[in-house]
Amino acid sequence: MEIILDEGAGFCFGVERALKMTEEVARATQERVYTIGPLIHNPQVIEELKGEGVEVVGEDADVHNAVSILRTHGVAPAAEQRLRSESKKVIDATCPYVKKSHQYAELLRKEDYHILIVGDRNHPEIKGVLGYAGKRVTVINTPEEADTMPHYPKLGVIIQTTYPIEKVQKILAKLVGRITEIRVFNTICDYTSDRQIAAANIARKVQLMYVIGGRNSANTSKLVEICKQQGTITRLIEVAEEIDESDLDNVERVGITAGASTPEVRISAVISRLEQIASARVTH
Amino acid sequence: MEIILDEGAGFCFGVERALKMTEEVARATQERVYTIGPLIHNPQVIEELKGEGVEVVGEDADVHNAVSILRTHGVAPAAEQRLRSESKKVIDATCPYVKKSHQYAELLRKEDYHILIVGDRNHPEIKGVLGYAGKRVTVINTPEEADTMPHYPKLGVIIQTTYPIEKVQKILAKLVGRITEIRVFNTICDYTSDRQIAAANIARKVQLMYVIGGRNSANTSKLVEICKQQGTITRLIEVAEEIDESDLDNVERVGITAGASTPEVRISAVISRLEQIASARVTH
Questions:
Q1: B103 and chain A: CB distance < 8 Å anywhere?
Q2: Predicted local confidence at residue A283, as pLDDT
């Protein structure tokens, strides 16, 4: 059995940066350390952080005398303001790419655009961006939703950092003929789009694809969706223990990729497990 | 033989406005009346205007003591400035849609965008827009040309008023993944896109299509291109006399459309000629 791995898979820049900031403050401070919502979308990593004294709390938590860490997905400005006024200290671990989206949303709002946010309105990243976009805003998650959008003289577009570019192309094609001015900020992060391209390429070469990542992770779900679109059987797993051996019957080539919040150690564990299964079969 | 006519074909708003302004000034003034380049792209109409004392001159012509008319396609600001300082009077017959493109080009230049003009660099409309766009500018006429464009952090897009929207969609799809900010002003005029849609619909229903318009007219050429794309034999004619009877052998349904500079009288003449041919055949 041949294993094809996306060598670029694993922590993205924003996740690595956030974890480093969080571990540093957890080591250095005597205060309680809170992250406002899960720091990243990987339940195992969040569990490990808990062991280091980092607790996940809700946006309304009492943060007096605590260090509050803003999660990678960002928070809305009103929530940030409260945290800054009440916490002992605030660490902003918002992904710099998401921060850019906040800035663009603010700019478009000030310049009187109707703002179109392309992404999942229930994802914390989009909730944060919405806080900067103000009231004249529409959120859509599929090209079909663009069909029913009314005309706006000036439309400003911001895209969820993990959104696939192909769908953005379709949305723009639907809008450009109907809207006088469209100003698009391509806020998709390079890491995400690179992973998506690599995943599609690998999926086309293999019979079975493993995507390792949190079940609550948007970028991981997108990888699963993309691999399935190639017609490849695809399994989303958080840990190696979830591998179902029977899936590997008659499989000659298996592919591996991972979400942006998946530690390298989890990827290695999956590879080891697959190699173990393969060698057991050869011996047999 | 059935004749299917695009009922909306004929003079567009900008052409009608320009002709009215020109005829009025020609009647009212004692001075020479010049249009800087042909007022519209229809040789027969230009010939008729000559009979009313309106002469076509080049951009460098001596205009002292003359009334200078800025053509529907617009002129670059430097040329306009000279005309305004030297002419007895200037009549601005620039199409209001083209004027919008000038304003957008100026705005994008002032806000430090690299400007992408989508259209034909040899067309007078684009030459005029280029004058407002300044030096940081690229002109492309096909989606393929977008492939070789370098990255710009801020790209502002202006489109030739007669350009087909389908090609703009393809160009945007190629650029959006590579460029951080794209600001698109959809400067395609509604009249043009309505004619293009109607022409395609009619062409699909007929065996032979006549497009009536000037051989130097960009919007007329686009109509010919679109009709041919439907797999329909298409003839570009300026006047009814150009109809080749043998083209109509075994043709049951013939379609007619016309460019934005084509007078209604030319369209009627084509219909009359076709009806004449058809009735002669029935009698025969």
A1: no
A2: 65
For residue B216, what are the CA distances in angstroms to A131, B123, B237? 53, 9, 12
* CATH number of the structural domain A97-188: 3.40.1010.20
Catalytically active residues of A are 125
Please answer whether residues B122 and B101 qualify as being in contact, where contact means their C-beta atoms are separated by less than 8 angstroms: no
Classify B92 as helix, strand or coil: strand
Residue A53 CB contacts under 8 Å (≥ 6 apart), including other chains: A26, A32, A33
- The answer on pLDDT for B282 being more than 90 is no
For the question of residue B125 being annotated catalytic, the response is yes
**Range(s) within chain B of domains with CATH label 3.40.1010.20:** 2-10+191-283, 97-188
- Structure confidence by residue, pLDDT tens digits, A179-221: 999 999 999 998 988 999 999 999 999 999 999 999 999 899 9
Report helix, strand or coil for B131: helix
CB–CB contact B186 A182 (8 Å): yes
- Closest in A168, A177, A188 to B165, CB measured: A177
The pTM of the whole model exceeds 0.90 = no
CB contact under 8 A, B176 and A184: yes
What is the predicted pLDDT for the residue at B280?
A: 87
User: Is 3.40.50.2000 the CATH classification of the domain at B2-10+191-283?
Assistant: no
Complex ipTM value? 0.83
Q: What CATH number was assigned to the domain covering residues B13-94?
A: 3.40.50.11270
Q: What are the pLDDT digits (tens) for B92-141?
A: 999 999 999 999 999 999 999 999 999 999 999 999 999 999 999 999 99
User: Which residue, A18, A2, A5, A1, is CA-closest to A195?
Assistant: A5
Residues 134-193 of B with CB under 8 A from A: 165, 168-169, 172-173, 176-177, 179-186, 188, 193
